[in-house]
Amino acid sequence: MQNQDYDVLNIEGGKPVKMWTRGVPVEAEAKEQLAKTAKMPFIYKHMAVMPDVHVGKGSTIGSVIPTLGAIIPAAVGVDIGCGMMAAKTTLTANDLPDNLGPLRAAIEKAVPHGSSPVQKRRGGRDVGSWNTPPQPVDVAWAALKPEFDAICEKNPRLKNTNNYKHLGTLGSGNHFIEICLDEAGAVWFMLHSGSRGVGNAIGTYFIELAKKDMRTHFINLPDQDLAYLSEGTQHYDDYIEAVGWAQKFARTNREVMMHNLIAAVRTVISKPFETHVEAVNCHHNYVQQERHFGKDVLVTRKGAVSAREGELGIIPGSMGAKSFIVRGRGNPESFNSCSHGAGRTMSRTAAKKRYSLEDQIKATEGVECRKDEDVIDEIPMAYKDIDAVMLAQRELVDVVHVLKQVVCVKG
After folding, report:
1. For binding Mn(2+) 2, which residues are annotated in this chain's numbering (predicted)?
2. Could you say which of 98, 206, 289, 320 is the most buried, measured as most Cβ atoms within 10 Å of its Cβ?
């Protein structure tokens, strides 16, 4: 069935799934996963699916899940509050050095990035964390700590998590820091990260509690990862408090990284410049209460961005592909949402098997970035065509700026 700018997947025994996916591939497995979620009894009206949709753990990435009276912790996931931040500067392309290598090196020195397996951590420290956090981290953590301490009093298992030393750090996987140029040659700073180790601990802990609740009450689910917490229970209240804090941590994490990124650039570029000429800081893995179709509902965006009318957002491409600063059109049928990126077309394992280091080097030509076997899984060809993704959601957002990276730092 077709209706306006989206297609509708009708689910027997469940709510409809409205899909803004015309012109982009959608795996059969993703549709099956969406159908399972749509059958949950507390889904409100319909689910909305963005063009970057693909199979995820817990719930489909690129989906918007409105619920009444319940929440699915695994749908929010473990990278709680993961999102983007971008800031326009008064620099132009002509102000960048011809050799961008020192610029990338300065950023890599200023912002811990990557991660090390537990068995390889030196002195118990993850390479992606601070050894001694700088003053901006101290200030930011002082504001976050009291609420976290209160959460830990109720949930002692969360106490020994890596939080303070992860604040202002990048992480690994698809997280990145970029220096970009827009269509007019203005320089932008952009980064992608979330709530790091503490968000992972909170997500994992409450996913386990939700599964335990299902077993306690003998509730059968189409998928274990759809275990939910019911409104009115202590676990529900505790999760709402903890997930809200983790989202605050994630937003602060990006702000601290941006502060350190700007300071690093100033050590290489001597010309005075201003930042935050236009700035955006948005989540794309999160849950919050919103009003839709006359009701207050919980909206979980699993790889989706809020796109209320006039609201600015960020839709990144991949290494070597352009990104977009967008303005929301406030489409009610999408629950005021848009995609969070291009979306993967294959797993990281499949990408490493299919593509070579030579492919990676060619695909990132002109970008100062890592070019080694450990980042082949982030090769642009492992993602959907960002132009097709943008075309599929033209009724959800308007493009404000088109960005192309010239420097990319990945963990």
Report:
1. 192, 284
2. 206
